[in-house]
Amino acid sequence: MTEKLELYKCEICGNIAEVVISGGGELVCCGEPMKLLKAGTNDEAATEKHVPVFEYNENDLTIRVGSEPHPMIQSHYIMFIEAISDNQNRLTRQYLHPDENPQMQFKNIDEGKILAREFCNIHGLWEAQSD
Ligand SMILES: [Fe+2]
Q1: 73 three-state secondary structure
Q2: How much distance in Å is there from the Cα of 86 to the middle of ligand 1?
Q3: pLDDT per residue as tens digits for the range 72-98
Q4: What is the pLDDT of residue 37?
């Protein structure tokens, strides 16, 4: 049973799929069930930091990955960041590439709480909720 906004990965080909609207069936790729990605939320003990950090400047918001900037090299980088409104009515995704800053910026943001999540090509999915 899928749920809206879940992310699934095919462990054979690497496809990643997001559930836009849940239909309830199983997602299959390369002939195998896709694996539900579980987000990490605590990287205090890790060398590289992945948990998104929220920085507000009046009505502007920067979501950074992470508390120390994550590497952005070809072999290891943040592939995308998503910001999801509390009611799940709005989702914004920023794709990133090596050599870019691992961050996502908003001007005049009017959302309440935001769930930020990001995907590292090596270390997978991580998330944090704004205050
Ligand atoms: Fe990483």
Answers
A1: strand
A2: 26
A3: 999 999 999 999 999 999 999 999 999
A4: 98
Neighbours of ion ligand 1 (CB under 5 A): 48, 120, 122-123
Q: CB neighbours of 39 closer than 8 A, spacing ≥ 6? A: 117, 125, 126, 127
- Binning the chain into helix, strand and coil, the percentages to the nearest 5 are 0, 45, 55
Spans of all domains in the chain:
7-36, 52-129
Q: Which residues of the chain have pLDDT under 50?
A: none
We find that the CATH architecture of domain 7-36 is Single Sheet (2.20)
CATH number of the structural domain 52-129: 2.60.40.730
Q: Quick one: how far is CA 57 from the chain centroid?
A: 22
Quick one: pLDDT at residue 110? Answer: 82
- Distance (Å, rounded) from C-alpha 89 to C-alpha 120? 25
The alpha carbon of 12 and the centre of ligand 1 are apart by a number of angstroms equal to 20
